[in-house]
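Could someone model fe (ii) ion with this protein?
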Amino acid sequence: MERAKAAHRQENSQGFVDPDILAKIRVGKAYVAAKYGFRNHWYPAFFSHELPENGFMTAQLLGEKILLKRIDGKVYAIRDQCLHRGVPLSRKPECYTRDTISCWYHGFTYRFSDGLLCDIVGADESAVIGKKRIKTYPVEEAKGLVFVFVGDVDYPVPPLAHDVPPKFLDADMAIRGQKRTVNANWRIGAENGFDSTHIFIHKNSILISDNDLALPLGLLPKGRFAFEKLEEVDGPKGVFDNFGPDVIKPIFTGTVEGEKVLEGTPHGRNMLPHNISMWLPCALRVDPWPDPSLTQFEWYVPIDGKQHIYIQTLGRRVANEGEEKQFAMEFERRWRPVALDGFNNDDVWAREATEDFYADDKGWLKEQLFEPDGNIIEWRKLASKHNRGIQGPEHIG
Ligand code: FES
Ligand SMILES: [Fe+2]
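Reply:
Sure, complex below.
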């Protein structure tokens, strides 16, 4: 027992959750354990345009270092770690044929398609040739994003549609976006996005005047029925906030001890959004937002225990190429600077300021939640129930 604890403490040097803390978690234990994310799910890693034909990209997802290459239009992904002495192949990618990569150190050569050690450049009679494989990852491209399935080699890969918010893959949904690295655990990102009263931090955002928003200072649920879950066996799993007037009360006046100290913007033309929802493995949908014609889809993809890739996208339904071009122009001119930067910079700042409290995982025990955090609790429960596995130290290295 003592030896097992000592071993786990050693693993914790990489930042995994202490079992003594986990033992005390009453709600959402698997979620708290998933500091490095949930295994056997699809994750967006970057945008398609970042990886040209014959080009390479590296990505670190859930602590796993991955090397990607586009060959004849299709993206392949392998573990970025040579089987021989463990060096990153990406340090100096050497490809002598289009669909293989040779390690720069001693020539071990792997096929991108199935990871087979198909040759060793300077030792072609070695007995290990044809007998070993480097790990490969399923890849799919959709809506201009490259998605990677991070999980066990023999896990039956589910459709991408099960791991993205509903509407995202709709044929008429045009998507534009950007990504950045945030210095906070992925769950701090998810809970910032889904948190209904964090709207307080946006009260001075440039977006409010730019788009004439009626933005309250807080949104108070009137009971448990303010949240809904979608848990179909063959579909995405998520939790909804419903912002109907019967279930959520917007608060426009801020008071301290009875004295009015702040006012939201109750007279704005656009009262948005109508619902916010959080989806496994780590995606948020804000609908509509930041304009009645747009929906925001974003992901908080675990890099390791301390950082996430913040992938922000906006979607608009378009009827033809002309409308899509118009949206692309509008995105660059207006929505990227005002919404994805201007508005969401507040969120990035808030997440990085929250990270310290949860970094040693004691924050999960010390936090003092209040009524509007009910949706966050529902999300923790749903994620604990429906995830397909927890990333652990044995998966990284
Ligand atoms: S470390 Fe890669 S071939 Fe030796
Ligand atoms: Fe926000």
